[in-house]
Amino acid sequence: MLHHRRRKVDRRASLVAAIAIALIPIVGVANPAGAADTPDYGDMAGRRLTTPVVGFAARPQGDGYWLVTARGNVYDFGAAKWRGALADRPLASTVRGIAATPDGRGYYLFLRNGRVFAFGTADFHGSARRVDLDGASVTAMAVTSTGGGYWLLTERGRVLAFGDADRHGNARPSAGVSTIGIAPTPDDGGYWIALANGKVAARGNAVHRGDSGGRVSAAAVGIVATSDGGGYWIPQLDGRVLDFGNAPFRGGLRGTRFAGFVVAMDRRPDDRGFWLATTAGRVYPEPGTDLPLAGVPQLNVTTVVGGLTIPWDVAFMPNRTLLFTQRIGQINAYVGGAVRTLAAPADVVVASEAGVMGLAIDPNFAANRRIYVCMTSNLPAGTDDVRVVRFRVNEAVTALTNRTDIVTGLPVNTFGELGRHSGCRPRFGPDGFLWVGTGDAAIGTVPQDDNSLGGKVLRVDTNGNAAPGNPGGRRWYTKGHRNVQGLAFQPGTGRAFSVEHGSYRDDEINRLVNGANYGWDPVPGYNESVPLTDFAKFPNAKGAAWSSGDPTLATSGADFLVGSAWRDWEGMLVVASLKEADLRVFRISANGEVATQIAIRLDDDYGRLRTVVMAPNGSLYITTSNGSGNDQILKITPS
């Protein structure tokens, strides 16, 4: 996923030269009652651009979006995938914008001179390269509902049709007024053309729903139609958004200052919100948690320690000394700016997903100096298992002593990919007991086997005995899991949540309820085509609070954000993603049953992310998982 779109170069001079960067004051903030937050998938905040952003397009599915610069760099966020760019090509004209295909798996980049470039599933149907535009620039593009054609609009109102797009007429702007946007009707039988003064021309079967009458506070920059064609929005450079017909009012960038000018907008598929993009690469969801006055924190990322290999977990001693594990077989401390190896147990089996994994600090560490480590072991000789081992950290923080294996016998895959689905995440709950998320070892019978500790969430005391209240006096608290990677407890309520890997679909966030079955039963054999929560087989299975669907993200470690410095994100659940290489922020509903993704950050900036842990000072620590000595422990400080 690492492409040249991630270049970090100076943006200031070119932004001033191309489109003078501005901070625009406007009036009043609105987040209409009853309107669900529009997801925030991230933007270019904190990144450096050489040329301004000129275009924005959301996936029609509403789960991601792209930004494009005047030079042709493309930046992808959420489920929108990078399909190509023009940044390395010599161009006779600057890029004007981007338009998505209906399937969300491709896009077009179009230039001011009328050239069109197709990427991903986008099919090329022609361009205005050899058309006499009479000196006019192309200002907008729209794709047909079939994806089999498109329209180009020039600043003087001329519409060019390609592929299965039908031409329904031009607009006739007054002298000195440009046409800046085009939006087709749902059946492609007509379109609306927007002028920079906020007026709208309807052509074909498009019905005029109203316009500004030529009176706007700043130039209009486009037009976006509702999904049923019953209305449209017109965004302006200053962040105001005009709504007409059945297009609901959803706010605008008002009552604050924001970087750059608004250059583009796109809507959610349910018409209940939209995103506004600026020349500075910022994307503002409306209505949403990223309104400038809403208090979303900026994230300052620094490297605490580098040169590591799969740092699997981190924890903090009461004096804030950082302890961490590396899957390659080490338990480490970071003291005085240097890494110390406290232990490298000789019996550790390092293979695939197995090795030294999760780490937890005893709540009574100040008195007993105990830590708990998940690791794969070959003891006794000739056998392999995953186990939880208790150690004591010596006073000098140079070694571990008093090893006690408190939970043994968690299954290991020895007949397929050694170490696959080994889990293993330990966390102390607010009840004082040690909770351990385990993997199913890719053995089909394990998750539903009450006598197996695999595919479960365990709840034990510090000696490994079953905690009081567990179902049937067993050591497990819940069953029917595939490969638990994250455990977190919600501040205030004490509710427990797990995060686990799906197969080709359905990564999940689950609220853990005593004795619940989460429905994973991949038999016969190890059948990964079955649902992660199989309600057909287990009608009373506990459903997920959130599921990725298809494809998966490889969600991993999780924790809740604590402290007022996190502003509106305080109390939110943050989840690391390995495959998608990002950090995701979720709001948990009042009853704890639904997790809603509201933001994505660090999108592919540091590679695969494995673990997130709140530090005692209110910062968030994150481990990367790229391997071969290329990993880091990062610290995120909100501001």
Description:
It is built from two helices and 42 strands. The protein is mainly β. The protein folds into two domains: 4-292, Methylamine Dehydrogenase, Chain H (7 Propeller); 299-308 and 411-638, Neuraminidase, CATH 2.120.10. A hairpin with a 4-residue loop joins strand 17 and strand 18 (283-286). The longest helix is centred in the N-terminal third of the chain and has 7 residues, at 12-18. The two termini are 28 Å apart. 53% of the residues are buried.
Task: Write the topology of this structure.
Layout: H1 12-18, E1 53-58, E2 64-69, E3 74-78, E4 95-100, E5 106-111, E6 116-120, E7 138-143, E8 149-154, E9 159-163, E10 179-184, E11 190-195, E12 200-204, E13 224-225, E14 231-235, E15 241-245, E16 262-267, E17 274-278, E18 283-286, E19 299-308, E20 311-316, E21 322-326, E22 330-335, E23 338-343, E24 356-361, H2 365-368, E25 370-377, E26 385-393, E27 400-410, E28 425-428, E29 434-437, E30 456-460, E31 476-479, E32 484-489, E33 496-500, E34 508-511, E35 546-547, E36 555-560, E37 573-577, E38 583-588, E39 595-601, E40 609-614, E41 620-624, E42 631-638
Antiparallel strand pairs: 1-2, 2-3, 4-5, 5-6, 7-8, 8-9, 10-11, 11-12, 13-14, 14-15, 16-17, 17-18, 19-42, 20-21, 21-22, 22-23, 24-25, 25-26, 26-27, 28-29, 29-30, 30-31, 32-33, 33-34, 34-35, 36-37, 37-38, 38-39, 40-41, 41-42
